[in-house]
């Protein structure tokens, strides 16, 4: 079967790879010049089932209201974005009820665990290099109150089978010695030994190479503008370079899935949630950390990536705007200094922003659309790196007409 995959980010590339491995003829279309150059470019680098909790949580609406208009708020809703997200926002509010939060978190966690197992197999099969760190993540707390509420969240994870241990400050330093300089400033942490981390861009590009070796053609520099259809089927994707025909199509355009989906009458609840990262060069730094630290107080995570440090975080609802904002960039630089006061300051800092494709319930959309041969693999929000291998594998199984190795009912477009 000739399958056309729309989008060469983490999700589209993983889907294309698994489709090719199953023996299909695969074409991937992307407007950029290489794979992974949009949201998958410089994300937080965490492979983190332990962060499956949906953002639509009890307490989130109050936080958004409290932080409204504050330029340095961890989650910032801009007034100009409000008219364009009313429907999405009302659905988000409905998902903040405790029982919805728990169900959504559990659904995403199952996919995350499935995905981590798929990623491990993939890395072993293909010998992929992507600056993967030794396993483990510490979530760090600065005051006893937030530590208590984190312990409640970790209880949910433990109940769902995720291994984690509460740590005193000395325990944090024992697991990650680079935290020694701030030992007296922290209340403790929770260690998730099975979480991981690595460079999503390196992974995407290495996987694209393997896919190419399996026969996948990548059509870069192709802007998708619309579709041709016949009765209940899509027959071709229209691009600025002409039409690309196929027998099946997989829409994996991140936040832009919503805009292109509209051309087919689909109303996809995916809204861009902007985030920022900095990548700091730290070659030869003796005190460099080994594993990622997520700082609850600062709402940032710091991840070692080879001889660099990646710091990511913050959320901003501002439509499709990706311009850098100096206040929000500075929040990340300050966050890094708060965790590692001795980090080498002479290193070059690269600033970046990207659009997390967020659904109101935090679950990605993985399934067949109401067009019989159009499949959706989108809406992976803040967890697309963690969910990529599993989502690609499950989607390839679905397109082939096989029963996916994970139940996709929770991710169905009709849910
Ligand atoms: C600041 C930040 C931190 C993050 N941290 C983490 C993390 O630590 N762990 C984690 O698991 N996830 C993280 N994420 C989330 C993760 O990066 C995303 O979920 C993931 O990158 C989404 O992948 P995607 O393939 O769906 O989208 P994308 O990577 O955006 O891919 C979509 C592709 O579609 C193409 N495209 C779009 N429109 C068109 C068009 N009209 N024509 C042709 N091509 C088009 C784009 O060029 C792009 O290549 C983070 C995200 C951000 C922003």
UniProtKB/TrEMBL annotation:
Molecular function terms, GO-annotated: oxidoreductase activity
Transmembrane segments: none
Residues in FAD dependent oxidoreductase domain copies: 2-398
Record's keyword terms, sorted: Oxidoreductase
InterPro entries: FAD-dep_OxRdtase (IPR006076), FAD/NAD-bd_sf (IPR036188)
EC number: 1.4.99.-
Family the entry assigns: Belongs to the DadA oxidoreductase family.
PANTHER family named among the record's database cross-references: D-AMINO ACID DEHYDROGENASE, SARCOSINE DEHYDROGENASE-RELATED
Protein name in UniProt: D-amino acid dehydrogenase
Record organism: Dongia sedimenti
């Amino acid at each position: 079967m000739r399958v056309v995959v729309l989008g060469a980010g983490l999700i589209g590339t993983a889907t294309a790879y698994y489709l090719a491995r199953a023996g299909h003829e695969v074409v991937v279309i992307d407007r950029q010049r290489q794979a992974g150059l949009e949201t998958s470019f410089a994300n937080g680098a965490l492979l983190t089932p332990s962060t499956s909790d949906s953002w639509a949580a009890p307490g989130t609406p109050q936080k958004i209201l409290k932080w409204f208009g504050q330029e340095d708020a961890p989650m910032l809703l801009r007034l100009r974005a409000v008219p364009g997200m009313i429907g999405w926002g009302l659905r988000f509010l409905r998902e903040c009820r405790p029982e919805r939060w728990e169900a959504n978190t559990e659904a995403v966690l199952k996919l995350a665990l499935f995905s981590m197992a798929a990623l491990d197999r993939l890395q072993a099969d293909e010998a992929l290099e992507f600056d993967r760190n030794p396993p483990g993540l510490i979530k760090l707390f600065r005051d006893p109150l937030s530590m208590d509420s984190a312990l409640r969240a970790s209880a949910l994870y433990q109940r769902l089978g995720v291994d984690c241990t509460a740590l005193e400050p000395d325990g944090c330093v024992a697991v990650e010695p680079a935290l020694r300089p701030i030992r007296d400033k922290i209340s403790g942490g929770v260690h998730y030994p099975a979480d991981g981390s690595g460079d999503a861009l390196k992974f995407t590009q290495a996987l694209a190479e393997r896919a190419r070796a399996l026969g996948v053609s990548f059509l870069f520099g192709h802007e998708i503008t619309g579709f041709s259809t016949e009765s209940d089927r899509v027959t071709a994707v229209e691009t600025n370079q002409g039409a690309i025909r196929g027998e099946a199509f997989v829409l994996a355009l991140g936040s832009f899935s919503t805009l292109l989906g509209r051309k087919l009458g689909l109303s996809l609840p995916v809204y861009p949630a902007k985030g920022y990262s900095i990548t700091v060069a730290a070659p030869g730094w003796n005190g460099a950390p080994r594993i990622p630290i997520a700082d609850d107080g600062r709402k940032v995570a710091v991840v070692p990536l080879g001889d660099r440090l990646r710091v990511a975080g913050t959320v901003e609802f501002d439509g499709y705007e990706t311009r850098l904002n100096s206040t929000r960039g500075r929040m990340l630089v300050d966050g890094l200094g708060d965790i590692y006061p001795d980090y080498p300051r002479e290193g070059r800092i690269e600033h970046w922003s990207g659009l997390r494709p967020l659904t109101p319930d935090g679950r990605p959309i993985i399934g067949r659309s109401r067009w019989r041969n159009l499949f959706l693999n989108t809406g992976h929000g803040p967890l697309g790196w963690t969910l990529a291998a599993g989502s690609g594998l499950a989607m390839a199984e679905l397109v082939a007409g096989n029963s996916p190795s994970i139940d996709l009912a929770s991710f169905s477009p009709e849910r």
